[in-house]
Design goal:
The protein is α+β, with helices and mostly antiparallel strands. Helix content is about 40%, strand content about 15%. The chain contains 9 helices and 7 strands, in the order αααααβαβαβββαββα. A 7-stranded mixed β-sheet has the order 1-6-7-3-4-5-2. Strand 4 and strand 5 form a beta hairpin. The longest helix is centred in the N-terminal third of the chain and has 26 residues.
Length: about 240
């Protein structure tokens, strides 16, 4: 009897398992479980057959200074020929050597005792210079220039009117000769781009003892030559009227 009960229990247990399996199959749970296990299992990815990168082989020329490279490539004759050609294309403007008059002494000025012209005296000297300019030959262009400290002490740079330079003076750097009222000549360097007189102007300024307030009349008597007239501001500082 006991054996019969055990058989009955086993049969009922097997029957329940079969029913449960049928239910799981109906819900597709076995397939879902298998898919989940497969997704969680790490897969080893096959190694890619990647080709090693090849670096471009470029021939890079060794950087050298132009002077060294040219020195190695050119002969001495070519270098000498180039130097002559360069000098012919861009000549350097310089003041020619002249004999300095005995009355000219280039002693340093005492800048601590600078004298500044009064506005009234400066105006008077310019008015007198204007009268002098009006009496000159009209066929020769001219302009007035009132001296400042930068013109006659320290810097010794004389800027010229831009419109006058563009209309009448050379388009490139040149030697401009300044001739005073006594006929003495002073070569100066005219810088076309900066429209002014540089080298040589100091010599003219010191030789004529120019001071702040003096008025100068520049008359262009030749393409590269000025006749210069000086009106002293000191004659009006002493109380003389214009």
């Amino acid at each position: 009897m006991v054996a019969a009960r055990r058989l009955t229990y086993e049969e009922s247990r097997r029957k329940r398992l079969e029913e449960n399996n049928e239910r799981l199959k109906a819900l597709n749970l076995p397939l879902l479980s298998q898919a989940l296990r497969e997704s969680l299992t790490p897969k080893s990815s096959p190694a890619k057959n990647s080709k090693p990168r090849k670096l471009r082989e470029q021939q890079v020329a060794l950087r050298r200074s132009i002077r060294v490279a040219n020195k190695a490539a050119r002969s001495q004759d070519e270098i000498s020929e180039q130097a002559v050609t360069h000098e012919a294309v861009s000549p350097k403007v310089g003041i020619p050597r002249v004999v300095v008059s005995d009355r000219i002494h280039f002693k340093g000025r005492d800048l601590s005792n600078r004298v500044y012209a009064s506005d009234e005296a400066r105006t008077c000297s310019m008015l007198r210079a204007g009268e002098l300019q009006a009496s000159l030959e009209p066929q020769y262009p001219s302009f007035l220039k009132s001296m400042l400290q930068s013109h006659v002490t320290g810097g010794f740079w004389l800027g010229l009117p831009g419109h006058f330079c563009k209309a009448t003076l050379p388009k490139s750097d040149a030697i401009m000769t300044l001739e005073d009222e006594e006929g003495d000549e002073y070569p100066t360097v005219f810088l076309a781009r900066k429209t002014g007189l540089s080298g040589g102007w100091k010599r003219f300024s010191v030789a004529h003892n120019l001071v702040d307030g003096d008025a100068l009349v520049f008359q262009l008597i030749r393409p590269t030559k000025f006749k210069v007239y000086i009106v002293r501001v000191s004659s009006f500082e002493e109380g003389n009227k214009c």
